[in-house]
C-alpha cells in the first residue's frame, strides 16, 4: 500500500514538473514576444531614417551624410539594444515550423540599419567616427559584396552562414564576433583587432588576409583551401593555425583541433 502511494505521488510530482517546465517556456516566449512588440516604434524610425538616407544620397557624390542625419542614425543605433527573440525555423518535408528563442541576444534592427546603409552606398567612416555602433547586429545568412567596414564597431555581431565577398574589416572592432559557417572570400582583416576570440568554426576562409595581431580565433572545421592536381589553392594569409591540424576532405583542406593523446 505504502509503495503504491509513493509511486503515485512520484508520478504526480513528475507531471507537475513537466507542466511547470512548459509554463516556464510559454512565459519566456511571452516575454520575448512583448520585447519584440516594443520594437515596433523602433522599426518605424528605422524605415524613416533609411528613407531619408536614400533621398540624401541622391544629392551627394561621395555618400557622406549630413551631420543631422548622422546624429539620427547614432541615436537609432544606440536605442536598438540586443534582445532575445523567437525565431521560426524553415520546416523540411513533413516537419512543422518550430519556434525557438535565439541562444544569444542580438539586434536585428542594427543589422537592418547596416544593410540599408550599405545598399545606399553610404560612406561609413563618418558614422563610425561619430560613435554609431553595430555591436550585436544580427547579420546571419546575409549576402554582402565589396563593402568597406573599416573601423566599424561590430563586436558580438553574428555573421553565421553569411556570404561575404571582398569585405574590408580593417581596424573594425570584432570582439567575439561570430562567422560560423560563413563564406569569407577575398576579405581583409588588417590592422589591430581587439582581443577576444572570433568564431570562424566551419567557415570557408578562402583568399582572405588576416592581421598578424589578430588574437587566436576559433577555427575548428574551417575550410582553408581547395585541393587541385597542382596542390592547395586559395589559402588565407596571416591567420594562426597553431593548435589545429590540416585534413583533406574531398576537394577541401579543413582544420581540425588537435587532441592530446
Tell me what you see in this structure.
The protein is α/β, with parallel strands linked by helices and 261 residues long. The chain has a domain at 139-261: 3 Solenoid (Pectate Lyase C-like), CATH 2.160.20. The chain is 33% helix and 16% strand. It has 5 helices and 12 strands. The strands form 4 sheets. A 4-stranded parallel β-sheet has the order 3-4-5-7, with no helix packed on it. A 4-stranded antiparallel β-sheet has the order 10-9-12-11, with no helix packed on it. A hairpin with a 2-residue loop joins β11 (244-249) and β12 (252-257). α2 (40-57) packs parallel to α4 (108-119). It is globular and about 55 Å long.
Fold topology:
Blueprint: H1 2-38, H2 40-57, H3 67-79, E1 86-88, E2 99-101, H4 108-119, H5 125-130, E3 143-145, E4 163-165, E5 183-185, E6 188-189, E7 204-206, E8 209-210, E9 223-228, E10 231-233, E11 244-249, E12 252-257
Parallel strand pairs: 3-4, 4-5, 5-7, 6-8
Antiparallel strand pairs: 1-2, 9-10, 9-12, 11-12
Give helix and strand order, one letter per element, not per position.
HHHEEHHEEEEEEEEEE
For the biggest β-sheet, the strand order reads 3-4-5-7
Report the radius of gyration as a whole number of Å. Answer: 23 Å
Low-confidence stretches: none
What's the count of strands?
12
Q: How would you describe the shape?
A: globular
- CATH topology term of the domain at 139-261: Pectate Lyase C-like
Gross CATH architecture of the domain at 139-261: 3 Solenoid
